[in-house]
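Data deposition worksheet. Section B asks for the primary sequence of the deposited chain exactly as it was used as input, without tags or linkers unless they were present during the calculation. Section C holds the resulting structure in token form. Section D is free text for depositor observations; keep each observation to a single sentence. Incomplete worksheets are returned to the depositor.
Section A, Depositor: J.P.
Section B:
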Amino acid sequence: MTISETPKLVRALQGDIFERPPVWFMRQAGRSLPEYHELRAQAPDFIAFCHNPEMAAEATLQPMRRFAFDAAIVFADILLLPRALGQEVWFETGEGPRLGALPSLEALEGEIGASTGRLSSVGETLQRVREVLEPERTLIGFAGGPWTVATYMIEGRGGERAAARTRAVEDPRMVDRLIAILVEATAHYLVMQVRTGAQVLQIFESWAENLAEDDFDRLVTQPHARLIARLRALGVDTPVIGFPRGAGALVEGYATAAGVRGVGLDVQAPAALGRRLQSHVTIQGALDPILLRAGGAALDRRIDTLIEQWSAGPYIFNLGHGVLPDTPVAHITQAVKRVTGR
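Section C:
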């Protein structure tokens, strides 16, 4: 691929700098779009929806038809992986995910080889999307961060993660072994995604906050570094964006040690922190999803500020977390037009 043929978002991860950065939004596919709710109503449950390549591809493409995003992210869920490893996973309406009892570590290890095949529908979704997505628009694959997925597997649901954090202190060998299992299974899952069309990968470490520095290094930074090293050993050089949400000042050490080419920033990220990071990696994110939901002049001002403060380095415009379900579609249009100028 020549420079002119390489998608803008991929070029940003290679260090290119643009007056108007490439833009995509986490959770851009789904909850805020009326056409998504019409589509979702046709599936018996959320997991069946994620595993239906025709439906999942349609959900992935819906925001690309509405907005001038530079990238699509495959519609899936981070908890498809523990389900593929043999743990029961389901979604309670209005309450979120639930997981059954954690299988033995020996049982989980024995399912690593088969887990990727059980996720082949995600690969088919990527193939379907790549066939119709314009070549200048990037296709992003993703997985949950090992620590985040481990917290769900241990606790059986989302929440304060106190049980998982306590287990990490009281039984570190068990938690470290579980994370090692997830590193290996995730590596193979992401390799499959690349082989079926993903051009960029993102690791969503959604529960990286409230960890002491040594725990953050042990549970987040080092597992990410091992995951990326494993991807490279398996022959995949696809750029990876790491998003350790809530990392605060610890994100600087993460950026230099994890092996990622991009780092997602949450809404608290100061301008100076972003500029320091840009000497090592491409930065992404920081727009408050609540501000996106509110819209108006304040949204425009914040978008202008973010672009101005970080436009001298490699930058991808995004949110500091996902699009909120009740965000008006008009406000997403407003934000994307403000970034792209069209």
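Section D:
The mean pLDDT is 96.
The radius of gyration is 19 Å.
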